[in-house]
């Protein structure tokens, strides 16, 4: 495995694209943009590339599920 392949594996393991993050969370683009704007999700920008930490997205998804159970127990 060469260095470029190793880097791609690392990027795929640690980061998500905007579309991947939106799909993982199951939210609208507007909701996702609001989360980023309010600082709930960190945006990493390098040139035209925008990435998001996978662990933040996974934590946010878990927290959202717990909040739904707490504030919407009837669903």
List the helices and strands and how they pair.
Blueprint: H1 3-14, E1 15-16, H2 18-25, H3 29-37, E2 43-46, E3 49-53, H4 54-71
Antiparallel strand pairs: 1-3, 2-3
Give the strand content. Answer: 5-15%
Q: Give the rounded overall mean pLDDT.
A: 92
Residue ranges: pLDDT <50 for 5 or more in a row? none
The coarse silhouette is: elongated
* Number of strand segments: 3
Task: Tally the helices.
Answer: 4
What is the chain-wise order of helices and strands? HEHHEEH
How many domains make up the coordinates?
A: 1
Give the CATH class: Mainly Alpha
Query: What's the CATH architecture name?
Result: Orthogonal Bundle
Major beta sheet, strand line-up: 1-3-2
Protein name: DNA-binding protein
Structure description:
The protein is α+β, with helices and mostly antiparallel strands. It has a single domain, classed as Multidrug-efflux Transporter Regulator, Chain: A, Domain 2. Helices cover 63% and strands 15% of the residues. It has 4 helices and 3 strands; from the N terminus they run αβααββα. A 3-stranded antiparallel beta sheet has the order 1-3-2. It comes from Listeria newyorkensis. This is DNA-binding protein.
């Amino acid at each position: 495995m060469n260095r470029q392949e190793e880097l791609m594996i690392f990027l795929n393991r640690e980061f998500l694209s905007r579309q991947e993050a939106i799909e993982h969370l199951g939210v609208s683009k507007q909701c996702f943009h609001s989360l980023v704007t309010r600082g709930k999700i960190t945006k990493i920008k390098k040139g035209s590339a925008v990435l998001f930490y996978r662990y933040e997205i996974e934590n946010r998804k878990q927290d959202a599920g717990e909040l739904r159970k707490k504030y919407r127990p009837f669903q």
